[in-house]
Write a structure and sequence with these properties.
alpha+beta; Endonuclease, Chain A; three-stranded antiparallel sheet; elongated
């Protein structure tokens, strides 16, 4: 088999990367393919096909091949665990040894507690709890909201991750975000709604309450369970996702038939007219009799 074919097979079986260290007999062929712009050196001695060199998963796999004791952080860890939609412009990595800078990578030396690391499909990365709090300041808490919504973390687990990583720059902001998350919002719009309700001292509500209706399990954004009043928050995602829009209407009809009143508020309503939102909820509560609540 020709050396070019061997390298292609190694790339295919190695997740898009191969290394000079593991295959010294192919050094000459690798150098030739680099000169021909068919291979790209992602890290010293680690190569990927030129047309896949910008794929973040390939770049992260290159780190694992070159530095098996490294740990992937932040956006890369999020993409590989609970946030596959997360864009990864720079692969952020921590390792016990000092690593030479490389284009498209950011290397640091930071101790990660063993309980906050996991191995997944050959990648070493931070757990969703640590990833979420690491990213919280730069994502305006979206990393926390999404982790809670996808139920890959608990609020207690987020606090534990913060406790295990003390004395870090940004921890004051991270703690503030966790305090603001005490009602466990699943989106920025829900987070804003929770703040409004707390500020106006409205009580008797929970968040993301599971309810069975006509054999279907639904999660209500902000139910006042004793009054069978559901406050639904239509965040920005609802404006762009046609399937979500449709499913919300089916859900609302099912809830109404089960005796629930449903109020809907958009991001713009919460942002621009919070007093009207509160007044509307209060008026609806006055009209509702106390009932058994979620079931």
């Amino acid at each position: 088999m020709r050396s070019d074919e061997v390298i292609s097979r190694l790339l295919a079986t190695g997740g898009g990367v191969t290394s000079r260290r593991e295959h010294p007999e192919l050094t000459g062929a690798m150098d030739r393919l680099v000169r021909a712009n068919q291979l790209s050196a992602l890290l010293p001695g680690v190569y990927a096909a030129a047309d896949s060199a910008h794929d973040p998963v390939v770049r992260m796999r290159a780190v694992m091949l070159r530095h098996p004791d490294a740990v992937l952080l932040n956006c890369g860890a999020a993409q590989l665990s609970y946030w596959p939609e997360m864009a990864v412009d720079v692969v952020e990595v921590t390792a016990p040894q000092k690593i030479r800078p490389a284009r498209g990578y950011r290397f640091t030396r930071r101790r990660i507690p063993p309980e906050l690391m996991r191995t997944r499909s050959g990648f070493r990365l931070t757990t969703p709890a640590l990833t979420a709090i690491d990213l919280a300041p730069r994502t305006a808490a979206e990393s926390v909201d999404l982790a809670l919504r996808r139920r890959v973390v608990t609020l207690a687990g987020l606090y534990e991750a913060l406790r295990l990583t003390p004395n870090r720059v940004g921890n004051v902001d991270r703690r503030r975000i966790l305090v603001d998350s005490r009602n466990e919002p699943w989106s920025a719009a829900e987070r804003r709604a929770h703040r409004i309700l707390r500020r106006h001292r409205l009580t008797g509500w929970t968040s993301n309450c599971p309810v069975w209706v006509a054999g279907q399990l639904y999660y209500l954004d902000i139910p006042f369970r004793a009054r069978r009043l559901a406050v639904e928050i239509d965040g920005r995602l609802h404006e762009d996702d046609g399937d979500l829009f449709e499913s919300d209407r089916w859900r609302q009809n099912a809830l109404v038939l089960e005796g629930w009143d449903v109020l809907r508020f958009t991001w713009a309503m919460l942002r621009d007219h919070p007093e009207v939102v509160v007044a509307t909820i209060k008026a609806a509560l006055r009209e509702r009799k106390v009932t058994a609540g979620c079931r």
